[in-house]
């Protein structure tokens, strides 16, 4: 079995593929939202909440991967906020397959997911996908459902013009 894993990693390295390992996913626990906000204060950031059990999320993830590839100026944070617990390996594989391994990736790691969602937005009931555009000044724009990536690009352009 180990030979197959090594072989796969060698092939990936030769092809220049980018993979995220399950242990590279940041655990999103109580206090993580404040940590993220503090680490990115004063910078425009796109925060996208998604889940493996969310069909629209799975459909749009490759589009986010294309956007990341075309916009190296984008500060993207992806948070796996599924209502059901996800396997870290499966989340990592999905991020790698969709070109999102280089983004800052988090995964809900508390069985009391309502508490985690409440920290982000007390009114959020867990609908996915959800995208937050957080401006340099800390103001936030919410995009519910599949994100209009043309609007995300326009928002990024407006932030970069400042």
CATH topology: Glutaredoxin
The structural class is alpha/beta
Basic shape: globular
Spans with pLDDT under 50 lasting ≥5 residues? 1-17
Explain the overall architecture.
The protein is of the alpha/beta class and 162 residues long. The protein has one domain: 3-Layer(aba) Sandwich (Glutaredoxin), CATH 3.40.30. Helix content is 42%, strand content 18%. A six-stranded mixed β-sheet has the order 1-4-3-2-5-6, with helices on one face. The chain is globular, with a radius of gyration of 16 Å. The N and C termini lie far apart (52 Å).
Supply database-style keywords.
single chain, 162 residues, alpha/beta, Glutaredoxin, 6-stranded mixed beta sheet, globular, disordered N terminus
Quick recap:
Helices cover 42% and strands 18% of the residues. The chain has six helices and six strands.
Which SSEs are present, and which pair or pack?
Layout: H1 2-15, E1 26-28, H2 32-39, E2 45-50, H3 55-70, E3 76-80, H4 88-97, E4 104-108, H5 113-120, E5 130-134, E6 140-144, H6 149-160
Parallel strand pairs: 1-4, 2-3, 3-4
Antiparallel strand pairs: 2-5, 5-6
């Amino acid at each position: 079995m180990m030979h197959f894993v090594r072989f796969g990693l060698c092939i990936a390295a030769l092809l220049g593929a980018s993979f995220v390992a399950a242990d590279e996913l940041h655990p999103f626990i109580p206090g993580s939202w404040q940590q993220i906000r503090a680490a990115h204060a004063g910078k425009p950031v796109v925060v996208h909440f998604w889940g493996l059990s969310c069909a629209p999320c799975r459909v749009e993830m490759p589009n986010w991967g294309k956007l990341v590839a075309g916009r190296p100026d984008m500060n993207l944070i992806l948070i796996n906020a599924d209502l059901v617990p996800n396997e870290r390996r499966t989340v990592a594989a999905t991020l790698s397959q969709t070109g999102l391994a280089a983004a800052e990736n988090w995964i809900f790691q508390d069985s009391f997911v309502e508490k985690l969602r409440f920290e982000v937005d007390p009114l959020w009931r867990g609908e996915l996908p959800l995208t937050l555009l957080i401006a340099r000044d800390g103001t936030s724009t919410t995009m519910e459902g599949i994100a209009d990536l043309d609007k995300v690009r326009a928002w990024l352009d407006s932030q970069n013009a400042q």
